[in-house]
Specification:
alpha+beta; 13 helices; 12% strand
């Protein structure tokens, strides 16, 4: 295995690197696309590593690297039985990776289909201002629902569209309004049971059905609303706000992570820092709140 790998590396080096260097010597202008090429690759690797460290992908990558190292060592040390077993599984590696990384691959492809160029150049400034106004309206509604211990489930769509979830509910398509949000979740009304989807600065639909997180992903002490909010955050990049009917506590879910009993200031900060596809501050706020709750329990 190692001999074949080294032979492939040598062939690639001779046919590509050496010839390319000779071409650069003859035509120095070709150095420009080389620099651009390297810069793009380095940038993509940097973004991949940065994004992976926040997910289970990083643990899987370390496992794959360790597997490859052990396979190489088994060949060098002539551990033939172990090497045969490990190399046999390598042939199914691509299929295994597709199965393991299926949720992450789908999310990456969906985000690749979104257009972030206008956001990068600041063209969507007016949209961001409108979104900030909507966030303050949502906060007013959430705090009112928490005071009255009215259960609520609010999904804030980001880059990945959730039309399939919207289709499970009742279309509303109104401007974001604290009064409308509070009225939707009044107990024993037609639309209170389910989630509200806020998309494109509109309350798109109510009474929507969300995918539920598995038993292993959430504490058994939490109810269906929290399970649905967490499940939705795992399937998409949406941010989900949950108000507990039993305690009135506010929780928020993002990327398969859950912050329980978040206060108004931290919720406002989190929403403002994560609007329009940005990803800031969630883990920091989660850690801060967990530390406060731990210290409170000790005292």
């Amino acid at each position: 295995m190692i001999e074949n790998f080294m032979a492939n590396i040598n062939t690639y080096f001779q046919k590509n690197i050496v010839e390319y260097v000779q071409e650069l010597y003859q035509y120095p202008i070709k150095l420009v696309p080389l620099i651009i090429d390297i810069a793009i690759v380095v940038f993509l690797i940097y973004k991949f590593i940065k994004a992976s460290k926040k997910t289970r992908v990083w643990q899987l990558i370390k496992g794959i690297v360790l597997y490859i190292v052990i396979t190489a060592l088994s060949s060098i040390l002539h551990l033939r039985i172990l090497n045969f077993i490990l190399t046999s599984f390598l042939s199914y590696g691509v299929i295994a990776l597709i199965v393991i990384f299926q949720p992450e691959l789908r999310r990456a492809l969906e985000q690749l289909g979104t257009n972030k160029l206008t956001r990068f150049f600041g063209i969507e400034k007016d949209l961001q201002t409108k979104t900030k106004e909507d966030i303050y309206k949502i906060l007013i509604a959430v705090n009112e629902l928490a005071k009255t211990k009215t259960g609520a489930l609010i999904v804030l769509e980001r880059d990945i569209k959730v039309q399939d979830i919207i289709d499970t509910g009742v279309m509303i398509n109104s401007d974001v309004s604290p009064q409308i949000l509070v009225n939707i979740f009044v107990p024993n009304t037609p639309l209170h049971d389910g989630a509200v989807i806020i998309s494109e600065n509109k309350i798109k639909a109510a009474a929507c059905i969300l995918p539920l997180a598995g038993d292993q992903d959430i504490s058994k002490s939490l109810g269906t609303r929290h399970r649905a909010g967490l499940g939705m955050s795992k399937e998409t990049d949406s941010i989900v706000i949950i108000v507990s009917e039993e305690s009135g506590k506010i929780s928020v879910a993002k990327e398969g992570k859950l912050i329980i009993d978040i206060d108004e200031d931290n919720l406002r900060k989190l929403l403002l820092e994560n609007i329009n596809g940005q990803d800031n501050g969630f883990d920091k706020i989660k850690k801060k709140i967990n530390n406060i709750q731990t210290n409170t329990e000790k005292n």
